[in-house]
Design goal:
Length: about 350
């Protein structure tokens, strides 16, 4: 792993994306149909996720969740090429409209069940695989957190406090802005903008961390952060709500800013991601999980979770090795290449 160059890492990630677009896209007719306007009167049957599609979505989620390249942005791109963006309301066999939440006095329009809504829920639920990967790889740190909760590990208690403080801003703003973000920022154009801005930020911060006295002198551990510093990392994580930005990237950059070395910043990012991802999966599962299962069933969900677990564990290993040797720059290069490729696709 130590001999993997930065461009080879970026190349492998680019190859994965190209494979999504060239070998697994649906037919042009299906893509065209997915753009049709909302039409609840028509009979729109629910699609079934195929085995390759379930594996692709699991791979995209697992590989990109912890790399600073934006899992949400990649999933939006994958859903586009797989033809899973249909926003027409699904119907049952008798032609009756299907709902995530039927119309009510509190919500007269209700929440229609669409292929896009079911797929978005699917991709959030399979984050459970990524959560499991962190639990397996960082069980000793989690055990320290548990001992700290019981008052048996002082450093574990401090780390638990810092993780909680870092999660707090995203929990508050996520619950407040979730619907607005889903309605306004889930587009490829929004992803492209965030990819470019994030890449520039990564280049700047990486150079600063490598060459500044502050970046070189610090050898702090995540439990040594002050409460205000943990909140700063959490506040930066909120910016990752813009698809294409990357939660992992913002928390690692935040870790750099408060004096953590790359590997320690990544470790803190993983730990902060656990409650963040678990909370998102639970909330999405509660709101629209049953409706999603009506569309796709348990089989694709369980397969997606398993693939996300295996690929997520491998991605964590790659990230730690790359940060140790190269910093964030290879991932910044990949983000720019991906943004350029997406611009070409949209222009064609």
């Amino acid at each position: 792993m130590a001999h993997i160059g930065p461009m080879r890492i970026a190349g492998r990630l680019i190859a994965l994306l190209l494979a999504l677009g060239t070998t697994c896209a649906r037919s042009p007719a299906a893509t065209e149909d997915s753009r049709l306007p909302f039409a609840p009167a028509a009979v729109v049957t629910a699609p079934q996720l195929t085995l390759p599609e379930s594996i692709i979505l699991g791979l995209v989620e697992g590989v990109t969740e912890f790399l600073p390249v934006s899992s949400t942005g990649h999933l939006i791109v994958a859903n586009h090429f797989l033809g899973l963006e249909d926003e027409r309301q699904l119907t049952d066999a008798a032609g009756r409209p299907r709902w995530i939440k039927p119309p009510s006095a509190a919500e007269p329009a209700g929440r229609p069940l669409t292929t896009k809504a079911a797929t978005n829920t699917f991709t959030v639920i399979i984050q459970i695989g990524g959560i499991a990967a962190v639990v397996v790889l960082y069980w000793s740190q989690l055990w320290s957190l548990a001992l700290g909760l019981c008052g048996m590990d002082r450093n574990g208690a401090k780390l638990l406090r810092n993780v909680g403080l870092a999660v707090l801003p995203a929990a508050v703003f996520g619950l407040t802005l979730e619907n607005w973000i889903d309605a306004n920022l889930f587009s490829i154009k929004a992803v492209i903008g965030a990819l470019v801005v994030g890449a520039v930020l990564m280049f700047v911060v990486d150079r600063w961390q490598r060459h500044s006295r502050w970046g070189q002198a610090n050898t702090r551990q995540p439990h040594e952060l002050r409460p205000s510093e943990a909140l700063l990392v959490g506040g930066m994580q909120c910016l990752a709500m813009w698809p294409g930005t990357s939660r992992s990237m913002m928390t690692i950059v935040g870790g750099y800013c408060v004096g953590l070395k790359p590997v320690q910043a990544a470790e803190f990012s993983f730990l902060v991601g656990l409650p963040t991802l678990a909370g998102a999966a639970l909330l999405k599962g509660y709101k629209s999980g049953p409706a999603m299962l009506e569309v796709f069933g348990w089989g694709p969900v369980l397969l997606g979770i398993f693939v996300a677990f295996v690929s997520g564990a491998l991605a964590i290993k790659v990230l730690v090795a790359a940060l140790t040797r190269f910093g964030l720059s290879p991932f910044a290069v990949y983000r720019l290449v991906l943004a350029g490729a997406l611009c070409v696709v949209l222009a064609s």
